[in-house]
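Researcher:
Attend to token order:
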Amino acid sequence: MVMISRRRWIDRGRSLPEFRRYTPRPGDPDWRRLVGEARALAARLLPRLAPPPSRGVDRLRALAAHGTAAENYAINYRRHRAGREDLLPLYFIWTTHRGCNFRCTYCDDHRGRSYPDLPKDGTLSTSQGKLLQTIMRTRTPSVYYAGGEPTLRGDLPELLRHARELAYYPISINTNGSVIHRQLARPRWRTALADLDIVVVSIDRLDLTAAAELWKHDRPEEVFRNLLLLRELAGPMRFKLMINTVIQPGHVSEALAVLDLANDLGLHFAPVPMNVGPRVHPGLRVDPEYPVFVEELLSRKRSGAPIVGSLRMNRRLLRSEPKACRNTLKPHVDHDGHLIWPCKSAMNVAPVKLNVLDYSGVDALYAAACKEVEPTRFHGQARNQCGAECNWAQNYSTDAYVHGLEHPLSMVKDVAAFVGQ
């Protein structure tokens, strides 16, 4: 019976809507053909996929994670009032491994090094990855899988299932989307989508030639087809689908085209101003198209378009306004299980690395880390501070959290808006 209803979802279909904002251009994908391919793939794959847990089970998982977040908020509120910046995490970012089948010209490890060129030694095994998640869950409500390209990691489904069992919420992944159709066809991957709450696909350009050049990937159409595939599967598998777009100087019109497409497809959109290493790209500041894009996006956000983050956060992010950067809220764990403290992007002071597997929990880990480098007042341009000018959404998410510590009602509104989207 469940199988029939899931099949009917595809039969009923989420056909490609009539484009209202986005205007296909010469060189863009053939969307009519791709949506047919995506629907055919979804019809074949969906019966093989494990269904998501019941809504009641999912609510219990979310409540457990919200409980951790609420406890952390109470502690962080007291620490903030005392002038401390060793705030307990809102989520943690895990570079699951460094392998990637793309060589995006804008992508690096926050220190100017391309992921495919970095050494792969020390990547955690499945059992070590599960232990890492267990340790981080002692104080961390949410996990964000990154890379490299995380879907190239064969044991990712086991890690996702373990994260669900530990009551992480939301469980999110950032992917280039290029191999998801092949992975989902493998028996080992039948549970992967059932255990994800948010899937973020990186789409920066729609022109096929420009995308192939940017990504150094010779089959860009597969990425767009797989985006449509995930759109077909998002409903029955109950995950939120987002498009992440890096806004690049000289190509702002491409970012606007992706925003238009996301709005027409009913997908959430996350804007990311391009950084060079740990600094916002100077070309964005002088690109005359950029402020026009910013005002258009903010206008759509005000009108209720599904754009990730609050209006305040997007305004500050896109305009590079000064921020309260608190990196301990979003600890970054590398492929080898080491926490990079207090910030992966620090320039003036070299970050330290601590092996998470050596600690019983986040409290012990953070206590040891603070003895190595004091995070309070670490953000800034002085010689004993980070020296970076990062303009990523993740940094502005910490700014939004600090605003929520000072204005609790705004935190409640932001959380409610995110959960309700």
